[in-house]
Known about the structure:
There is one protein chain. By secondary structure, the protein is α+β, with helices and mostly antiparallel strands. About 40% of the residues lie in helices and about 20% in strands. The protein is built from twelve helices and 18 strands. The strands form four sheets. Strands 13-12-18-9-10-17-14-15 form an eight-stranded antiparallel sheet, covered by helices on one side. A six-stranded mixed sheet has the order 4-5-3-6-7-8, sandwiched between helices. Strands 1-2 form a two-stranded antiparallel sheet. Helix 10 links the parallel strand 7 (about 220-225) and strand 8. The radius of gyration is 27 Å and the shape is globular. The two termini are about 40 Å apart. The structure holds guanosine-5'-diphosphate (GDP) and magnesium ion. Guanosine-5'-diphosphate (GDP) binds near residues 126, 225, 260 and 262.
Amino acid sequence: MSKVRIYTLAKDLGVENAKMLEILDGLGVSYKSVSSTIEEDTVELIKDILAAEAEGGAPAQADADTTPAAAPTEAPAQTTVQTAPQATEAAAQTGAAPVADQTEAPVSTEKEIPHRAPVVTIMGHVDHGKTSLLDYIRKTKVAAKEAGGITQHVGAFEAKTSKGKIVFIDTPGHEAFTTIRARGANVADIAIIVIAADDSLMPQTREAIAHAQAAKVPMIVAINKVDLPQADPERVKTDLTQLNLVPEEYGGDLVVVPVSAKTGEGVEDLLEYISLTAEIEDLRADPKGEFSGVVIEGKVDKQAGVLATVMVQEGTLHVSDFLVVGENYGKIKAMTDSNGARIKEAGPSTPVQILGFSEVPSSGEKVISAKNEHAAREVVAGRADVRRDEEDARDRRKGQRSLEDLL
Ligand code: GDP
Ligand code: MG
């Protein structure tokens, strides 16, 4: 026996899966699920920990490590008692705040998870102006960096606005959104539904709305082409109301912004509403947390090789990090931002193009990092095991069924 699945071990040892995961967390062992496999050494450690717990009733050593958060909260409580007299003296001398403030101090020093930029996707019926709107925003809100540098298409770009950064996913709306969502990932925080003012709601508009609703992503409607003489934004609003989407000015809560991708009218308002929505959503991510991301696009470049655009969702990516996607892993050889500039690290809500995968990852695949190559291989091997088990089970079921059919 060299490796064992977590749930198998839990069953063998007569403990709950949750307990097993708690111990693994405490040991700093990474896993994907209870069907992940762990090393024999780890198994021995777990047995020791459980034995120690059963014996003394006192939590085992590793258990104390599982709750590092407990230390800071407990320590100040003790020191408060000890330092209280000194603090009172100090307060008496300076005539400053009473001791009570001291006990609250540790709470206020706790770091909040920082805000992150919203990730926006644009959807709508064909020819209603999705590409034009993105082009307008890109032209006016993305600083053309290195002179002469042609920005290569990476599937996303970052717009700088007076209210902060907004990340736009510019792979063809529906496909990007649906393939990513089909894999269980959610990249977009906000969906812009583009509706042409001379055409109103069309089949793909309804589809786009349904997608956003299914994903529980807040929607903003951009009524485009308001520069056209035949534009009828009121009709669009009435049609929306019939779908139970009531614009704010009709007493509902749907934000509707009239825009023109041709003249730029209303685009500033649209960006403002995006920032406002993001603020309400209170989007946060920890740049110091464990990295996780989603593939937006993967492709092969004749010269560079495999290129993948990845959206950083949590943590920070660094050049030389090991990444795992599905059953493949790679080491980041180089990273570029959406302007094509080389970067060494990338935090949350940053789309980056990564060179270093050997296989082309598909959009929507989740990306995690591994401590080193060995760890990356482990994760890949564990996933391959799980997949083979599932395939075997499926084959067995199939065999069973054909046998039943035969009888
Ligand atoms: P998409 O299929 O949704 O990406 O639509 P496009 O951006 O390709 O636009 C379709 C057509 O509508 C193009 O001919 C655009 O020039 C035109 N168009 C897009 N936005 C506007 C607009 O605001 N005003 C006018 N007059 N034409 C627009
Ligand atoms: Mg288009």
